[in-house]
């Protein structure tokens, strides 16, 4: 069954948690005890409706304040797909959480309050989805019940958002507009007769109809080696396989490949998944590969097709989302974790800070504070094999680790 990960984004009180709770309720994905707790808490607060945000706001502080302050991952399934929804905070100071939630998603929901329309935070949410190359974005214009399901209001917000779309640098995104009421359940899972002027799908119908090829950024195949398998048993005395996950494309038996960093060539002899052999390993499949030649390969090496080489350099420039309270400054050293590899890196140059509301860049920068996004060049102590993020989401991204605390302090997208 296909698994679709969806990132959510919206300003405070736009109704993200309520929307997700409504999806869980209408798809009958809430357990009876969870539903009972929601009913009890809603009644104790004097509500004449069910507060579905309680289904996702798991922290005590979140429930007390009525806002989302941490990324929550919600899982549910339908007959067609399995879903993972990343419920992310809407506050400006939680930009890093939005980046974290969206970094591994294939689709996104941007919520807009029908009473407020497109605001500055909407720019930020769209910028992050654009930066992370999310291919399918639904703009859910929520709280339509509070504007009497006005088609005029819906069209005005849609027009404002389309002006924002003109500023993006990633043109392969598909943008879909859907009028919804998360509280009432209109056009979320089930169609409503309150918006006869809207003839498109409901929110869930849209995601149910998504085809894998329309949402995944297909690139060149990359096979980072996670583990070298040497059973040393009687039956597999000479077996030497390389276990890992295929990213970006497919690898097949007979493909001529290059092992990096040694750049030694060979051909794929066999592809295993557990005890079964396959002719082709599809993208995102975890397999074990054997080669026709004896090549010295270890964890962190990469197999690629001979005519589809990545860049091999000791320096790169990337867009950084900074996530730490301590500043990133020129000359500081961090560990770059790029896939399996960990490499020591020094900040060579902070070119400019990017304003995620599409208001331009700031070149007068002496360092990066928490939630800043900037263009930064790093020098490494040894080469890595990478692609540009726009060409390969997996092989073009990395995280930064503080050498003193071992904390993840930043996420990067190679440009």
Automatic annotation (TrEMBL):
Keyword Nucleotide-binding: yes
PROSITE patterns listed in its UniProt record: G_TR_1, G_TR_2
Residue ranges annotated for the Tr-type G domain, each copy included: 1-222
EC number: 2.7.7.4
InterPro entries, per the entry: CysN_GTP-bd (IPR041757), CysN_II (IPR044138), CysN_NoDQ_III (IPR044139), G_TR_CS (IPR031157), GTP-eEF1A_C (IPR054696), P-loop_NTPase (IPR027417), SO4_adenylTrfase_lsu (IPR011779), T_Tr_GTP-bd_dom (IPR000795)
Pfam families: GTP-eEF1A_C, GTP_EFTU
Signal peptide: none
Keywords per UniProt: ATP-binding, GTP-binding, Nucleotide-binding, Nucleotidyltransferase, Transferase
Lipid metabolism keyword on record: no
Database matches in SUPFAM superfamilies: EF-Tu/eEF-1alpha/eIF2-gamma C-terminal domain, P-loop containing nucleoside triphosphate hydrolases, Translation proteins
Taxonomy, superkingdom: Bacteria
UniProt-recorded name of the protein: sulfate adenylyltransferase
Taxonomic source organism: Zobellia barbeyronii
